[in-house]
């Protein structure tokens, strides 16, 4: 029989009868305690919680000035990742155009929703084991898939072009979301360090855009970016972890993990509703404008024999370089000054206001270079200003929210918003005039909705104070798991005792 140490069984038994009595007393005590929440367990849990947050506040106050060194290293890491992503992203649409035509882009984006749902589910299924190891496994998995696809050639058939589209979209979303979750959990003085990370990252993004420009040999560039890029990111992450002794907090092995917990937290917390809107709704407008840019550029670089792939990749590579150069300048010279002068709440409204203005301007008189500049301005401001502000919103949340909820918001939520935009673009059949007529009002509504969400979430962030969003949910889950453990232990003791008594009866019968 299993031995269990309790307060009611503290004296050793000298005989079988004494042992049986002590075991029965222990079971009665334990089962009685398990029928209601354990006060001792709750008090110990609360004490540990208060001590944890007190230590966290003390450690933050002990730093007189920010340490920028982790920011530079993380900037290099994100730079390597974005150089890979922008190279692949700049090749993604030319590959699709070459095999199926640009008219199939909305369909590919709709497929990416289902594919991203699958990858996000798998990510959340395994993320509680070891988040460090998961990040590395994710990078090596994508590296292997991109290497295999480059050997087959992404332009070989319709299926390979669609697979390339899905892998590129999911890679950019999932790896980027995990990176920022990592930063939100470990970087202090985020308002000072994040501009450094973003600024350095745009250098890599510019190089990725230039790498996609010119030439017809897509497979070679695809292999260099898709296979070697994620490996370089993983090596850089290993160096960072060893240098700063980083261990991403995970859940204890005995703790049950609910894959859908992140979605449940988003549903329960009004603050996360607004973060979801702020992180996703603008993608509707960007998806429509991006498709309009591709239609106009393909019309410009079409020849009697078809689309010039080299000219199209050069144009899109130049567009990527323009976006990231502008983003670099904004992150270095604008973001921190904007935050200091106008504050966090006012800074959040800059991007929604610009989105509404650009939507009205672009749909009034669409042309290739107007859409080029408009998209460049919107994307660069999103990367350099809106995204860092969005990440700062997670500063008042728990690690459960930073990793579990953020992956659903940034990956799946963003993909669904792009899917809504793709429904608008897919309904026009490549007709630019129909696209402008049908998409103008939904894009304007998305901009207004984004503006309202930005104002309200800024107010809620100030109202939260010292409380952490999602904190009560974590405490309730841990307390319930402690109660469940006590109940299961009591049931197991009853089963063991029944088995023990049956064995004793059998032995007595044999003896007789």
Strands, helices and their partners?
Elements: H1 16-34, H2 39-61, H3 69-99, H4 105-126, H5 131-152, H6 158-186, H7 190-211, H8 218-244, H9 261-268, H10 270-280, H11 282-300, E1 302-303, E2 306-307, H12 309-333, H13 335-347, H14 350-364, H15 368-392, H16 399-426, H17 432-464, H18 471-511
Antiparallel strand pairs: 1-2
Helix pairs in contact: 1-18, 2-18, 3-6, 3-7, 3-8, 3-12, 4-6, 4-16, 5-6, 5-8, 6-16, 7-12, 7-15, 9-10, 9-16, 10-16, 10-17, 11-15, 11-16, 11-17, 12-15, 14-15, 14-17
Order of helices and strands: HHHHHHHHHHHEEHHHHHHH
Overall structural domain count: 2
Please tell me how large the radius of gyration is.
28 Å
Please tally the helical runs, counting DSSP H or I stretches of 4 or more residues: 18
Q: Tell me the fraction of residues in β-strands, as a range.
A: under 5%
CATH architecture of the largest domain: Up-down Bundle
Number of E strands: 2
**Termini, distance in Å?**
24 Å
Average pLDDT value? 77
- List low-pLDDT spans: 1-46, 48-64, 248-255, 478-495
Helix content: over 70%
Determine the CATH superfamily of the largest domain.
MFS general substrate transporter like domains
């Amino acid at each position: 029989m299993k031995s269990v140490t309790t307060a009611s069984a503290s004296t050793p038994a000298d005989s079988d009868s004494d042992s049986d009595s002590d075991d029965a007393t222990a079971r009665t005590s334990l089962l009685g305690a398990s029928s209601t929440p354990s006060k001792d367990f709750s008090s110990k849990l609360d004490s540990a919680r208060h001590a944890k947050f007190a230590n966290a506040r003390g450690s933050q106050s002990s730093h007189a000035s920010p340490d920028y060194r982790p920011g530079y290293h993380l900037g290099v890491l994100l730079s390597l990742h974005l150089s890979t992503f922008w190279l692949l992203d700049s090749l993604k649409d030319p590959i699709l155009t070459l095999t199926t035509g640009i008219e199939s882009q909305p369909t590919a984006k709709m497929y990416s929703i289902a594919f991203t749902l699958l990858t996000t589910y798998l990510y959340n299924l395994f993320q509680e084991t070891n988040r460090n190891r998961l990040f590395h496994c994710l990078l090596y998995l994508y590296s292997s898939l991109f290497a295999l696809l480059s050997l087959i050639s992404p332009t070989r058939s319709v299926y390979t072009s669609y697979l390339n589209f899905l892998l590129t979209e999911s890679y950019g979303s999932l790896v980027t979301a995990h990176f920022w979750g990592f930063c939100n959990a470990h970087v202090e003085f985020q308002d000072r360090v994040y501009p450094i990370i973003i600024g350095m990252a745009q250098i890599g993004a510019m190089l990725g855009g230039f790498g996609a420009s010119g030439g017809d040999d897509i497979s070679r560039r695809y292999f260099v970016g898709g296979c070697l890029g994620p490996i370089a990111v993983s090596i850089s992450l290993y160096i960072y972890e060893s240098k700063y002794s980083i261990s991403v907090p995970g859940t204890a092995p005995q703790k049950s993990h609910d894959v859908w917990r992140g979605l449940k937290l988003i549903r329960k917390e009004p603050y996360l509703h607004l973060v979801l809107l702020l992180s996703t709704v603008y993608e509707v407008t960007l998806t429509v404008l991006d498709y309009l840019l591709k239609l106009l550029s393909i019309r410009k670089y079409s020849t009697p024999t078809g689309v010039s792939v080299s000219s199209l990749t050069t144009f899109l590579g130049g567009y990527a370089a323009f976006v990231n150069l502008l983003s670099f300048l904004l992150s270095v010279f604008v973001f921190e000054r904007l935050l200091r002068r106008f504050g966090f709440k006012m800074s959040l409204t800059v991007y929604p206001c610009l989105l509404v203005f650009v939507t009205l301007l672009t749909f009034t008189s669409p042309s290739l270079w107007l859409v080029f500049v408009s998209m460049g301005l919107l994307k660069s401001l999103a990367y350099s200003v809106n995204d860092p502000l969005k990440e700062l919103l997670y500063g008042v949340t728990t690690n459960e929210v930073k990793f579990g909820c953020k992956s659903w918001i940034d990956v799946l939520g963003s993909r669904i918003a792009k899917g809504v935009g793709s429904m608008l673009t897919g309904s026009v059949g490549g007709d630019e005039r129909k696209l402008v007529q049908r998409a103008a009002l939904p894009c304007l509504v998305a901009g207004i909705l984004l503006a309202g969400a930005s104002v309200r979430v800024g107010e809620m962030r100030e109202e939260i104070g010292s409380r952490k969003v999602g904190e009560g949910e974590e405490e309730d889950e841990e307390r319930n798991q402690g109660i469940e453990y006590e109940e299961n232990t009591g049931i197991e003791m009853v089963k063991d005792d029944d088995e023990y008594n049956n064995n004793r009866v059998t032995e007595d019968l044999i003896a007789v």
